[in-house]
Amino acid sequence: MDAKLQYLSPEWRDQAELKLKAELSPERMNHITSSMSNIYTHCPDGKARYLFFNYENGALKELLAGEGEPPAAEFRITGDYETFAKITRAELSSQKALMTLKLKLKGNMIKALKLASVADRLNKVLSGIPTNF
Amino acid sequence: MAALLDPTSPYFIDFPKRLKDVQAEMAREGLDVYLGSRLRTLSWLTDAFCPWRSFIVIPGEGLPAVFTFVIDAARIADDSWLDESQVFGFAPMGGQDQIEQIADFIKDLLKNRKGRLGVESGMSNYLPEGWLTHYEYIQFQAALPAAEFVNAHIIIDKLALIKDSGTINRFREASRIVDVGHQAVLNALQNGGYKGMTETEVAGLAAYAMRKEGSEFEWSFTGGNEIASGYRTSYMGGACTPASRRKLQAGEPLMVDIHAMFMLGLGDHAHNYLLGPATDRQHWHAKNFVDMVKLTLATYRAGITPSKLAEELMGFADSRGFSDYMVPGFEHGIGLMGDEWRIGLNDGPFPYWTNPEHVYQENELLICAMQYACPDEKIGFRYENPIVIGSSGCEALSRFPLGIEEII
User: Fold this and answer.
1) CATH number, residue B145
2) A5-132 adopts what CATH topology?
3) Which of A78, A100, A109 sits opposite B96 (nearest CB)?
4) φ, ψ for residue B267 (rounded to 5)?
5) pTM check: above 0.80
6) Is the CB of A78 less than 8 angstroms away from the CB of B90?
7) Model confidence pLDDT, tens digit, residues A50-104
8) Are residues A64 and A50 in contact, defined by beta-carbon separation less than 8 angstroms?
């Protein structure tokens, strides 16, 4: 795949779903059942967007990208578009973004800690998509 | 820890009922939410030891939520009767600090209503009490600008005053453990065993014996097991002696005040020795003290007040010529871990101190505590023992035989 895809576009979402399913087996995802909404504020066009992940027993059941209010999720992570873009480009770790108030997490911290390594794996896969930010 | 909810256990405490009792009081006071921050409140409602800064948010209906430093949240969830979904960890991360996390939780409970929020504000001589700090209060007010903050700790204080059988049995077991610690100390001191030993060593061997019996903690914030020898037993007005590196010496008194914890129930018993050879004068002091303890234990009962008790006992000390050596106080409060301050409620002439006119009731639990000190002669003794108030007397929970033995 040579052409770069626009970040959060339907094509980028499709590619993300393919890569996540191909590269992260349920075992690699620790058989988690959880959901997470990444909420992107201050997108380049001024809109708010979301990326919604829904995993059951480690298998990706839903990956939604859209505008406006995201589906309800166990974890809700809010931040600037540029912050998420840096994370996806692997220029910033999600943990550092949380610790420097660049991201806000809503959800049970104890469970979030259990899922931290899984989230890192997920971000690493997404960083492999040739993307225009 | 489902076992906590086994009603056949002697240590069973009906925590869901406690919660409902709190919620009924909240309704009477017109409170929508109660934000507890005191260690005693957390112990009394969660049945878990919460050593890090923690909060409990009690809604008008339904289960409470516990918020604690994230490093300890999973352990508290494991120890408490509450499900892990009710325990939250806070951390310095976006959206996860304690103010934002708790304020958001309360906002969800209030559902856009202004709401009345009960908080715990006051003062104590007990350092780990856990009152809401000024900074926390200001921050919560800023995060919940529409809510009315009401000081409401009286709700918990009232409900926790009379102890149920599960609580008393936990204290009985903690006291049994303390007695094992005392026996281990006595065994180690005898036959010259004390020679070369330090106060910290005595504290440690008591701790080891009690831990072997299942004690969870030498819980007192006064340095764990308090051991004092020689002049350190006789600080004027003193009743706090963290163990030091001082070596025990022949001819001196030794005070052994040890603490055990069993399921948040607290053992606290002080026993005293004379390291021989003891003088007649030292024996005179010792007899004064033992007689005083006997009389004190015989005097406690429902209906008596701290002031009446002190009056009777100081009269006895005066008649025997040792009132100069007695600290005129005979008690301190006690409850599940974190509750170690005044007797009764905050209704005395000095706010947040024991009301001298508090009338003891059946099944109140307190530490019968007294201190004898003669600094000029470098001798002093301490007695502490959890007692349960009965209709016509009291039950002393520690059964280690009362006396001041001369150790050879």
Assistant:
1) 3.40.350.10
2) Nonspecific Lipid-transfer Protein; Chain A (3.30.1050)
3) A109
4) -100, 140
5) yes
6) no
7) 999 999 999 999 999 999 999 999 999 999 999 999 998 888 988 889 989 999 9
8) yes
